[in-house]
Description:
CATH topology of the largest domain: Rossmann fold
Order of helices and strands: HEHHEHEHEHE
Radius of gyration: 18 Å
Number of strands: 5
Structural class: alpha/beta
Strand content: 5-15%
Amino acid sequence: MAEAGGAxxxxxxxxxxxxxxxxxxxxxxxxxxxxxxxxxASGHGSADAMLDKVKATAFLATDRVHVxxxxxxxxRKAGTxxxxxxxxxxxxxxxxxxxxxxxxxxxxxxxxxxAYTKPLLKRIEAGEIDPSFVVTHPASLEDAPxxxxxxxxxxxxxxxxxxxxxx
Length: 167
C-alpha cells in the first residue's frame, strides 16, 4: 500500500532498517522519520521487537515501541521524529539519550481528524485526491464481524475495509 502511494518501503523483518537507511543517505540518516505504527507494532523481525511482544503479552508493558526506537536511532542529527501512531501507556527501552544527543525534535499526537475532514472531502469530491488505493476490502455491512476478525488477525492482506449496507 505504501508503495502504491509513492513511498519507499523497507521490510524490517527482512532488512536491517538502520543499515539500509545509512546506505541510502550516505551514512547521514533521514531528515525525518515517522512512527505511524504505534502500540500495535509487529512482534517479529528484530530481537527487541520480539521482546516488546513478550512483555506486552506478560503485561510488563502496554506498548511495543520498536518502531519508535528505530526512528530515533535512524534519524539524522537535528532531525525530526513524528509520532502520529497511537500509544496507550508504557513503552520500554526508548533511547532518550540518543534523541537528546542528536538534538532531535519529537512531535507527537493523534491526527486532528475534525480539522482535516471537510477540506479533504472537498478535494476528494473535486477529484484532486483519490484515496481508493488504500481500500483493500470493500464489503457489505453484514460482513463487518468477519472483516473485523480478518483485520484483527492480519489475514488476507486486509488493510482498509469499506462497509456499505446491502452490498
